[in-house]
Amino acid sequence: MSALLAVADLRVHLGARAVVDGIGFALDAGEALGIVGESGSGKSQTALAVLGLCDASARLSGSVQFAGRELIGLRERDLHRIRGAQLAAVFQNPAASLNPHLRIGVQLAEGQQYHLGRSRAAALAEAHRLLDAVRVADAGRRLHQYPHELSGGMCQRVALAMALACEPRLLIADEPTTALDVTTQARMLELIGEQCRERGLALLLISHDLGVVSELCREAVVMRAGQIVERGMSADLLSAPQHPYTAALVEARRMLGGARP
User: What is its main location (predicted)?
Assistant: First the structure.
């Protein structure tokens, strides 16, 4: 059976610089893969390339296939039908996903109405269930609130609910806990793992902390300067890294006391 997501020889150029330089990996349905690296390593640009959200000036080459369909070069109209429906994302800053001028319920409902053809009433009812699923307290009241009325952790839960709303097959989580306090980080990671398992979602988790990745992903790749320098089982990368850069990441984490980012 072919992989749900297959990336081959992917290159992303911003000007003369290759921010992603010939990488490849595959992710099967229902599985989880981590991409680890420091800021500027190319991991987030990889996620944006998969989602078709790179800067308009970026030049992409290679192949990104999702469910057997090539995404590079696909018309924006066709990408829009896939993105948000079969392919969803949670970003570091929930402000990137939430419209400050719309109530939470409206934002959770509109994707369902567009992609799934649900009525407004049905979409709002599902929005309530989604907020319950991601453990947003007092979900009925939250539907009528605006993002600025919620805490950062609660906004990130709403962003996760929005990503799940159209029943996607793949969730891309790009540094989803970085902007949160330590306690909220742990709860958010548990929630992402729980929802992916319950819904049978594939997960592409991006982080600069190999320890975070090892909690949710059986396998991981390590990126540096746009290239993959090591790949393998997450536990092995954490306990016995082979590449000096991976070893440096592990050592940096140890010196910080193993704290999440």
Answer: membrane
